[in-house]
């Protein structure tokens, strides 16, 4: 167990020097990564063992899970979503005194929540204590695999995001060499990953026993206990990492090779971009796309997975394809004959989902003060616009602003059936920066944000 300097002895939660804790955690992660990258596995394993026992890693795990983690408000079986400083300190002392070898993870509580498409999907929720232990294990395991993961993997990885994935697809399509697309959809990926394959891949990791227990812990639904013979522990922060580990090797199966600058060698037939369990393969010909489908089907089968026959498609890039809520398509450039441009726009599905979300919020404001409704609308608008502002979203933004205008008119007409048009407009709309149609709440002065206010 690591020691803190005399000037930074731990007495209570409020006495913690977070700069020092952060420095120590980053030090562990960097050292593990560099040791594996240099091939010094023995040293890397020793650092992983130290990280698993580290007070700093444990403290950071509690901080992330109970205070700053975006998912902290998700109800857990122990009814705790937020902890006071005193309870966080108590949790720290409890886990510090535990023997993790003897720790038995409780079954997850599984509930059904509505998806964006209106259907229900299962959500499993670990306890606060279980999430913290997952963070500690992840902190030791993730740097090892970050030193190994393939270039085309973008989902749930530090320093990578969706926008990096679109740039890679855009760059590959713009070269016009790989214009046949395999859209891959792995059927029930998180529910069907082979435990045997996953545990074999982490066989020498010091806390592999802990991951094995999580995988086998099962779940509770309506007070009935169910075993889990396959799949990862959904709802936990380590699950996306485990999925990435199980899917590692797809590029190797396709014999994809890179130059040092990250660009694909031109003699290769394929370019693969994967975000968690969603992926696309850009191919030089239709035959290559068919071959890629066969190769990846065989690869996934070894991990207990298979491609969805209905959702796995092959098409030419000029027909367009969707990935991560964007549509990618090659168009003929009318200004330059015999040349094509790559256009990336928000997908029809993404537009339908945000319209449905906005519609629900507008309806919730009927007969109520408008300030809470506008705040909720602005939050939805900001999130969606920030996600899509790096692509050609001008048309989509204008369409959504028009949608909000119509929803606003419908709302105020329903609330004031006897008032004139001029009265409605003067009360609920104002001019801002040469825009005469900004919906607002007069009492609070809060304006409805326009999608078009975000630069593209």
UniProtKB/TrEMBL annotation:
One of its GO terms (molecular function) is RNA-directed DNA polymerase activity. Residues 94-328 form the Reverse transcriptase domain. The keyword Glycoprotein does not apply. PROSITE patterns: RT_POL. Keywords: Chloroplast, Nucleotidyltransferase, Plastid, RNA-directed DNA polymerase, Transferase. The keyword Transmembrane helix does not apply. PANTHER family: GROUP II INTRON-ASSOCIATED OPEN READING FRAME (PTHR34047:SF10), NUCLEAR INTRON MATURASE 1, MITOCHONDRIAL-RELATED (PTHR34047). This is Putative reverse transcriptase/maturase. The lineage of its organism: Eukaryota, Rhodophyta, Bangiophyceae, Porphyridiales, Porphyridiaceae. The gene is psbC.
